[in-house]
Design brief:
Keywords: Signal. This protein is α+β, with helices and mostly antiparallel strands. It contains 4 helices and 5 strands. A hairpin with a 2-residue loop joins strand 1 and strand 2.
């Protein structure tokens, strides 16, 4: 009777140790597995209120992305996850989306800039997007692209 109870208690205590998480030390280097672990962890490492604030959508693309990656939210370091808030100024009301990623730092690629703020030839963009050359040149003019 003593051995099964001891086994259960030791299993419970061993599965709740501090090695189950690795709060990112934002002052240290970033490696392939993320930030190195902080030695002293506080409750603030697990609280992030940045997603509560509306992003500034008064820019050219009328959108704002607020990330909650390891650099902003050290508590998700090493978990392989992240989230971001997307604010869009669409029509008469603002739109809001929360997107989650199975990557700690997925990066961001805005298609408008990828297509129209570069030197990619207009005919290639025309075939890819089904936009006509006049529309493409107008978008390149607004976003600074050539070609």
């Amino acid at each position: 009777m003593f051995i099964p109870i001891f086994f259960i208690l030791s299993f419970l205590f061993s599965s709740t140790n501090a090695a189950d998480f690795c709060v990112g030390d934002l002052n240290g280097p970033v490696g392939p597995a993320g930030y190195s672990c902080k030695k002293t962890v506080t409750v603030n490492d697990f609280v992030y209120s940045g997603l509560a604030a509306t992003g500034n959508t008064s820019n050219l693309i009328k959108a704002a992305v607020t990330p909650a990656f390891s650099a902003q939210f050290p508590g998700v370091n090493g978990l392989g996850i992240s989230i971001a808030r997307l604010d869009l100024a669409v029509g008469k009301t603002q739109s809001l989306a929360f997107v989650s990623f199975s990557s700690p730092d997925p990066g961001l690629q805005i298609l408008d800039f990828a297509l129209f703020a570069n030197d990619l030839p207009t005919d290639i963009i025309e075939e890819t997007t089904f936009l006509d050359a006049a529309q493409i040149k107008k978008l390149k003019g607004v976003l600074g692209g050539t070609g």
